[in-house]
Amino acid sequence: MANKTIDCFIPYASPEQASATVEALKADALVNNIYLLSPDKDAKALDGCKLIVIDSLTSTATVRAIAAHAEAPYTLLYTKHTTLVPGYLALARFERIAADSGAGMLYADSYTVIDGKRSAAPVIDYQEGSLRDDFNFGSVLFFNTSCLKLAAAGIDTAYQAAGLYDLRLRLSRIAPIVHINEYLYSDVTVDNRKSGEKIFDYVDPRNRASQIEMEQACTAHLKEIGVYLEPKFETISFDKGEFPVEASVIIPVRNRVRTIRDAIRSVLSQKTDFPFNLIIIDNHSTDGTSEAIDEFAGDPRVVHIIPERDDLGIGGCWNLGVNNPACGKFAVQLDSDDVYADENTLAKMVKAFYDQNCAMVVGTYKLTDIDLNTIPPGVIDHKEWTPDNGRNNALRINGLGAPRAFYTPVLREINVPNTSYGEDYALGLAFSRRYQIGRVYDVVYYCRRWEDNSDAALDINKMNANNLYKDRIRTWEVQARRALNAASCK
After folding, report:
1. Is the full-model pTM beyond 0.85?
2. What is the CATH number of the domain that holds 129?
3. Quick one: 169 and 51 in the same domain?
4. Any idea what DSSP says for residue 206?
5. What is d(CA 472, CA 460) in angstroms, rounded to the nearest whole number?
């Protein structure tokens, strides 16, 4: 008879909700105890199970309760209220890889079942830069119980929302977190929104209280691993080089004939007390975009560049524009399908450089549809950014906001990654390593969501590739900041 080596913990709302999961776990000879996690102290446990009363699945109190009750060598936590269907010999596979790898926590690819239809739900590898609190592990977390107990014993702050997040950060400092890229279980999803509807969850104002907790947990982790940066910034004098204008708006574009005229008009309507221009890098458009840009050729402020090379992403187009002799002292972003909120956007962004002595400025935007009607969650102000801790918290979130503006001499030193996703985030991390990032909290930008947006409705593989790249950016930044701190201690 196999040893009973796994204690299982599952959310419990009702017998109907949990019974199928419980029966599936009972059928596996490796399962020792099954614990039902419920906020209802009067709930009646299913036969053969034990009830643990919790406040929420994500709280520190629940993490401590799981650690206290776990007695088998391994601990399985299921994080959904839907039915878990372990794959054939899946728990044995979890256990085998746990023993072979020395992992503190493991997770695996899975299948999602909706209305009887099964689809693959692969996840990505965990790395040191996987600091997002919404990192997708799937719904099954498999722990080495000794590591779980050790991590839980070190918890010194009680969280309501960030308990599980705090736990896995602590675990990552004790033992590896390992992705098993095999399909080891199935579950049923309850969130059928498209990817473009999910990506703003972390900045939804309704989630602000939990975001404060997540920031606190992440900041503590960064201090433990030698990556936290104190609020000390290099001063900017704004006197490097000579520029033909004070500011340039940079628009990389490819095949946006439907929206490019709106973007151009929103720039040319800006009212400022300084000279500015508009640099459009037209990346070999084939749909009439080039001809639409040429309609504005009579305005001397419009600089229309068609690259000689054909291997440029959005970041590469930015580099071409910023290094053009026509570029001004400040380079200000506008995407080809978005518009500035009013005629004062450019003036406000430039003023922030001088008022806040920063090398980069991030504004506030509103999500709208193509016709500029507000869509949820509306205003995205990124108020989680604080002057003292913003550059540390930036390692936890997936974006910094829009529009973005840069002091051109520094941008020419750093350069933009030649990609079409994550290039702006990489810049924000690199700039904030040395310089303060200024903020404008007025709505100065309308971010229009429509069917041709780059992240409107991505398939799982593209989403994973994007997230893996941003985690890689964070990993490089973690390494750079650790080295910076080490050098400053010498």
Report:
1. yes
2. 3.90.550.10
3. yes
4. G
5. 18
